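Supplementary material to the annual report.
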Amino acid sequence: MAIRLQALIERLGGQLTGDGELEVTGIAPLDVAGPTEISFLSNAKLRDQASASHAAALILTEAEHGRIGPEYAGARIVTPNPYAYFARAAQWFAELAAPPVTPGIHPSAVVDPSARVAATACIGPHVTIEADAHVGEYCRIDAGSYIGRGASVGAHTHFHARVCFHARCVIGERGILHSGAVIGADGFGFANEGGAWIKIPQTGRVVIGNDVEIGANTSVDRGALADTVIEDGVKLDNQIQIGHNCHIGAHTAMAGCVGVAGSARIGKYCTFGGAAMISGHITIADHVHVTAATMISRSLPEPGKYTGYYPFASDAEWEKSAAILRNLTKMRSRLRELEKTVERLADNKKEEN
Amino acid sequence: MAIRLQALIERLGGQLTGDGELEVTGIAPLDVAGPTEISFLSNAKLRDQASASHAAALILTEAEHGRIGPEYAGARIVTPNPYAYFARAAQWFAELAAPPVTPGIHPSAVVDPSARVAATACIGPHVTIEADAHVGEYCRIDAGSYIGRGASVGAHTHFHARVCFHARCVIGERGILHSGAVIGADGFGFANEGGAWIKIPQTGRVVIGNDVEIGANTSVDRGALADTVIEDGVKLDNQIQIGHNCHIGAHTAMAGCVGVAGSARIGKYCTFGGAAMISGHITIADHVHVTAATMISRSLPEPGKYTGYYPFASDAEWEKSAAILRNLTKMRSRLRELEKTVERLADNKKEEN
Amino acid sequence: MAIRLQALIERLGGQLTGDGELEVTGIAPLDVAGPTEISFLSNAKLRDQASASHAAALILTEAEHGRIGPEYAGARIVTPNPYAYFARAAQWFAELAAPPVTPGIHPSAVVDPSARVAATACIGPHVTIEADAHVGEYCRIDAGSYIGRGASVGAHTHFHARVCFHARCVIGERGILHSGAVIGADGFGFANEGGAWIKIPQTGRVVIGNDVEIGANTSVDRGALADTVIEDGVKLDNQIQIGHNCHIGAHTAMAGCVGVAGSARIGKYCTFGGAAMISGHITIADHVHVTAATMISRSLPEPGKYTGYYPFASDAEWEKSAAILRNLTKMRSRLRELEKTVERLADNKKEEN
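Predicted assembly:
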């Protein structure tokens, strides 16, 4: 399970300084990498570690290549983005280490005769695939997953064990859905009548682009009439809730426990810290970055970083600040009162002089 | 798949103005509905859209019926609550469009011989039904769901794929449980002994009324000794956590990511915005409305709307306000000091005059 | 299903006053317990209830034993920690009431021939166990659970229905995993390249100690290179998210909806209230207690109780306090201005006098 440096260059690019016939067997951090491993320098602070590294080869930028002297004796791969290069190289090593996937449908799986499953796909034990569903080439649908009626799964997409992908939903190519993800459950839509709730059928779909990853136990609801849309390259972590009719722009990433209420429209290239909450029916521009535990209650038409959580303190200190916060209007009144009094005093003074 | 207007009136009520023999094939928004579709006016702001609508028929109130002139030429259905009427009509269309459900037990399902499953129920692939469980008439238990020993599922209840409904729990009629919902896992109960936690067996049940809907990946824990109770008509969205021994009053609705700690007692007709958090052992009155991302830390004996989240700002502004908030006690001390000084100054002034 | 008091003492310790041959059939609260039941006094406020109890036997401390007079006529079990004693006694009753578990592999389960499953283990319907996995003595793996390639499950561990335990992860003895728990999904790790995210393979494991309980629909991600570690006796409630490479110290407990970002290192004997959020890459000392709904954004080197959530109010009051909070910097400026003015006035005064 070794890769020649020359093969790495041919597949992933980069300029090689050193012996292309050298074989590397894995990737490791700078201070740990041994003489058959490759490492990477993506943070200038670690330059000293890089210089002292025993790695067989180092992935680094042109600039760092110039700064690291001959004390580092191994090979070098120069590339504009060493971290991305590392990620791709690690993917390759992971592919080599992965157990082989045998195409075919496990005998315990229940696949409707009208479903179209590519011959190269691998359907695991206890999977259910309903009528008219489509599973593309080289897909992996792991144990216990469910694909609803008329749903469509693009080529090379991988459902880990126990994913639910409901009727008529669509996902593109190279997607990854983790265990417990539920795509296409009903949105939360009701009409109120005398206090009781009358269900509004949710007849839209979830439509997911290419290269999307969705984490464990994350839910994405189907649209009410129109669709919920997740564009290419979006990455959702675990335990996330996406309400019906949301639209999430390409390459946006959300950390764990984020909640997005229905019909929110989120731009491209955004990031959301863990447990950020987004109100429904608002619009968020491209390149917005929301800090963890922040509630976004209105639209954000401008890119930027937005934050709003209560800074923690010792419980005793918090008790005090929270008590004052509850009475902030009184404090403001006192300040106003004081301003008036002082103004009067200053005026008197002037008159006196 | 068309419905005559007269049939709609016979089933759902309302006064019809227009041709009862007209057939409609679906429901659409005012600006989109075509001449075979029905639409509804539930918001006075959309009156102009209604007037210009091409819909075959319009659901509207008596008052709006009077305000919309002959420029709208289609049929009209007058009803006090057009939105609720729309919901019921949409349900009917959805029923017509739904694939037929064939009663019976899929051969891959594992049903204990002592379980009683109604002949009209539909048990999907890879379902497990344990001993002494009961599944009522016209239930649908979809692929991979689990029904524990002695649990009871009322008529017309629908478990989507991969629901867990644990031993001895009970749900009434017409319930809907979405994929990944876990009803009746152990509550979080431990005795502490020298720092370590000793498990307290959770032997209560979850008892759920009629017409309850529970979202994807939501958890409702069983009671410790007594039961966790969810009354009729409650609607829980996705990713919600309901702790042991909670009691949720009828027709209360909770949006996604809400958490309710153990033994909270919540009234009827309440609503909770997304990610609202409710402390344990508190009581919340009927008709309480909690805003999203709000932590309710003590009982609410009065109806009303309650809110408490940190208003977001640009990260830089938040940094400033958070820093002051941390020092709010100092700010209050300065204000007090100032008040004293000013009072002294004012007193001196009086003495002078 | 009765236990003699003498048998209880022999198994769980404590000093018995009364008839050891007496048989008790269950445990109940002080005011409810009947003459064949046992009860416990763990809170001095309930002393009057204890005195008046009809319980067959009472678990209590030495001190309370002295305070409760002959008006309570039943037997007494004296122990330093009555609540922990109650928990253990309740466990015993629960064991007696539990339906028998028959060892063996259900015919619908799919177990790879290379997996080693102890003969005393009970593998339920529709379980999948992948190659080279190991399931220890007396384990219970309930319906629809998944155990990945090379994973290892220690003796007496119980997976409830529909648990996912992914490849190469390890759990010790006497663990309890609730339905929907996902252990060992990929951590959320990506390199950014021109806005798009490149996946970093997650090749670490989740390594879990003995006596760990993990709640329904909780996710614990596998490490990127190193492992995610959960030490002995940790208790995680439902709907929790633990990011990759976290380390959670022994006997720490987390309530529902907590989120812990990647690489956080949390001490022993900590507690986290519901929906507490922990930033990544921080270190939290032993014996830290975090209040519900609190965001911990930096390391906590000292034990103690920490809090930080916005205190709720009526919506109208919150609107006011939030508006002031947004302008807290202005308020501080006004205060400073006022201080200067007042100082000037006071100085003038002095000069005058």
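The radius of gyration of chain C is 28 Å.
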